């Protein structure tokens, strides 16, 4: 693929943003239903995984219900107009429609997450010394620590917003394209391309398709708060209840 292809691809993304396509997409169902956000979230009890779901949700190939247990080795898939919010140990995820996510780990402790396709918003608890967590998308490898992060995975493009925390972002196609990102509040969203010029496969992106309210919900169902308050407008240390 030549430079003209990549210029056209990036130009399309910029035009889509300016024309409000992302806003319309969010309003048309990419975000969690308002009914889920309206509920007062609280920490899920032991033995419970799913906080909320809608439509077609499969866990390990079987239709899910509110009593389905999701472990650190589960595969979670959603159909059209579907989504699921769930907890695995100290981590929680909100998987959008038409997505497939594969988890890997031991018991209820995730070691990695592979977003095969689609979109997911996640928050991760702190790890012990020597423990790591890695997110894999179509085009990126993301090393994380106690982070809130939103990711989208398409065949030729990934989108990563470090909502807060520290991540090490590396292009799968070109290890020279990498960036250590420290974010307090959606500071440095990025696109990661599948192909292009060495050292130039990561570039700035807009904030899109996820909200502070959703992050607050995900932290609440694992018994924590975000390091910010979208209501009061101040920053505070991340803490447990």
Please describe the topology of this protein.
Blueprint: H1 3-19, H2 21-30, H3 34-38, E1 50-54, E2 57-59, E3 62-63, E4 75-78, E5 83-88, E6 91-95, E7 100-106, E8 109-123, E9 133-136, E10 140-154, E11 157-171, E12 178-183, E13 190-193, E14 202-204, H4 212-220, E15 228-229, E16 234-235
Parallel strand pairs: 8-9
Antiparallel strand pairs: 1-5, 2-3, 2-4, 4-7, 5-6, 6-8, 7-8, 8-10, 9-10, 10-11, 11-12, 11-13, 13-14, 15-16
What does this structure look like?
The chain starts with a helix and ends in a 6-residue tail after the last strand. It contains 4 helices and 16 strands. The longest helix is centred in the N-terminal third of the chain and has 17 residues, at 3-19. The chain is globular and about 50 Å long. It is of the alpha+beta class and 241 residues long. Strands 1, 2, 3, 4, 5, 6, 7, 8, 9, 10, 11, 12, 13 and 14 form a 14-stranded mixed sheet that branches. The protein has a single domain (3-225), classed as Sandwich (Jelly Rolls), CATH 2.60.120.1440.
State the main characteristics:
globular; 4 helices; Jelly Rolls; two-stranded antiparallel ribbon; 241 residues; disordered C terminus
Structure, briefly:
Helix content is 17%, strand content 41%.
Using only CA atoms, what is the Rg? 17 Å
Gross morphology: globular
Number of beta strands: 16
| Low-confidence blocks of residues | 15-31, 231-241
What's the CATH architecture name? Sandwich
Number of domains: 1
Q: Count up the helices.
A: 4
Largest sheet features:
14 strands, mixed
Taking all residues together, what is the mean pLDDT?
85
Please state roughly what percent of the residues sit in beta strands, choosing from under 5%, 5-15%, 15-25%, 25-35%, 35-45% or over 45%. 35-45%
């Amino acid at each position: 693929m030549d430079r003209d292809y990549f210029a056209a691809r990036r130009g399309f993304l910029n035009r889509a943003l300016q024309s409000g396509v992302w806003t319309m997409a969010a309003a048309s169902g990419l975000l969690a239903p308002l009914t889920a956000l309206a509920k007062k979230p609280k920490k899920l009890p032991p033995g419970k995984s799913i906080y909320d779901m809608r439509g077609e949700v499969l866990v390990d190939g079987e239709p899910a219900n509110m009593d389905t247990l999701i472990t650190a080795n589960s595969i979670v898939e959603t159909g059209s107009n579907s989504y699921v919010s769930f907890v695995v140990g100290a981590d929680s995820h909100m998987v959008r429609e038409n997505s497939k996510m594969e988890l890997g780990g031991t018991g209820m402790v995730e070691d990695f997450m592979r977003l095969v396709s689609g979109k997911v918003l996640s928050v991760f608890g702190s790890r012990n010394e020597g423990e790591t967590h890695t997110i894999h998308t179509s085009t990126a490898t993301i090393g994380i620590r106690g982070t809130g992060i939103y990711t989208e995975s398409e065949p030729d493009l990934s989108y990563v917003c470090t909502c807060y925390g520290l991540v090490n972002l590396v292009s799968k196609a070109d290890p020279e394209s990498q960036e250590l990102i420290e974010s307090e509040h959606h500071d440095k969203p990025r696109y990661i391309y599948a192909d292009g010029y060495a050292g130039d496969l990561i570039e700035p992106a807009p904030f899109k398709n996820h909200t502070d309210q959703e992050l607050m919900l995900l932290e609440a169902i694992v018994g924590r708060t975000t390091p910010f308050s979208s209501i009061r407008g101040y920053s505070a240390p991340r803490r447990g209840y």
